[in-house]
Amino acid sequence: MSRSLARENTRLDLSRHAARLFLERGIADTSGDQIAAAAGVATRTLWRYFRSKESAVEPLFAQSSLRFAAVLRRWPREVAIEDLFHASLGPDKQAPQDLADDILVVRLLARLADEPALRTAWLMSCHLGEEHLIEIIAERLDRPRGDFEVRLCAATVMAAIRIVDETVSLAAVKHGLKTTTAEVNEHLAQAIRRASTLPFCDPVTPRIWPDEKHAPSSAKAAQ
Amino acid sequence: MSRSLARENTRLDLSRHAARLFLERGIADTSGDQIAAAAGVATRTLWRYFRSKESAVEPLFAQSSLRFAAVLRRWPREVAIEDLFHASLGPDKQAPQDLADDILVVRLLARLADEPALRTAWLMSCHLGEEHLIEIIAERLDRPRGDFEVRLCAATVMAAIRIVDETVSLAAVKHGLKTTTAEVNEHLAQAIRRASTLPFCDPVTPRIWPDEKHAPSSAKAAQ
DNA sequence: GCGTTACATGTCACTAAATGACATTGTAAA
DNA sequence: TTTACAATGTCATTTAGTGACATGTAACGC
Fold this sequence. Notes:
The structure is a homodimer.
Chain A: H1 3-25, H2 32-39, H3 43-49, H4 58-73, H5 81-88, H6 96-109, H7 116-141, H8 148-175, H9 181-195, H10 215-222
Helix pairs in contact in A: 1-2, 1-4, 1-6, 2-3, 4-7, 5-9, 6-8, 7-8, 8-9
Chain B binds a DNA duplex through α1 and α3.
């Protein structure tokens, strides 16, 4: 196993233990020592991985937004977002470990109102997701990554995703509402559609370039 | 002077000193002791006001988003957002202290890329602004505050404001671009318009109620 | 006016978070 | 094997942040 991959695993493992302990006793009553001990590493190692104990849950958040981003990156240009979600998002599409991680995330999100420190971690993860979205949208619309319009769209779309995540999590944990994946997908697609300031949700036809027949390569160069 | 008002002043004063020191030497090289000493209070007092030294800049952020929210709260229903901004936002409309605070904010925002701890504070302040927006939009559209549509719209609009703020600040500080207030206002209004998922930017006519002539009071009761 | 109350702040001891310095181990390539 | 390097462990140390209690001070009733 590659070195950096092993590091990522340690990181995630620490993150899972941190999340579990935070859920069991709250953040204030969980010490760095406890997290490290639970994961079976030295305390010093924990602080090598994280700048604060709250930020220890970020990899867990990042993990799930990364999986989501991965789906969007494989998004064929002629497919609408609803169809993409229908085809790619579902409990049967996920490894058991990922499913367990998602449950942890949902339970954490349900506590945002009580734990301000948790929200900072969540918002930072959303910011990370926003940067993924910038790339995805820029790529899909053949626009440069620095484009203000692209950044704006990524920000509003990420905001929509965040609100849906928070709402669904709260409904599930606090009110015991069992929403089906299909419903969540529809909810999510609809929110993203409404939030998006650029038309990236619909099929996009590759730009037609006036001078050349084979545009894609030159499009990349133009960026 | 009322007690809680005095507290708010102390809070803001601490926040300004924290911001100045963070800008001068960076967050890592600024200690809680230094911030407290600069503001002329005991270190213990600083920790009574803030849960962490980074969060000490939040009141400064909150202050400026609160002033912005105050403008939106006085927004007549028959006025479009562009006209509101034109009439209410401008350097001549602000107290000198507020102007100085805004400059601090802009300089802080220009450093978000270097200082992750600063971004957490900024994002938390944006979250606060989002909650103000929920009230403002709900009020303007005669919808309940808990409405998902309202929350979604508030989140996307706040995202737009955030992106404009970050972009303008970065442009001003790093590239010395002097943008006029009129330009920023237009930029902001346009971004908000594109981001909004509900039609609150345009004049809204008070709802016509089937049974009554004088709707506003009953509308409030309905909420 | 005076005492009473409530609350903000100061002082100081203390816990917990986070870092620095250096030794040790494990793993990958030469 | 040996070398090399990155990750982790150990321990001392610094800095962030809290608890407990004393002190000051402004508002309130009398």
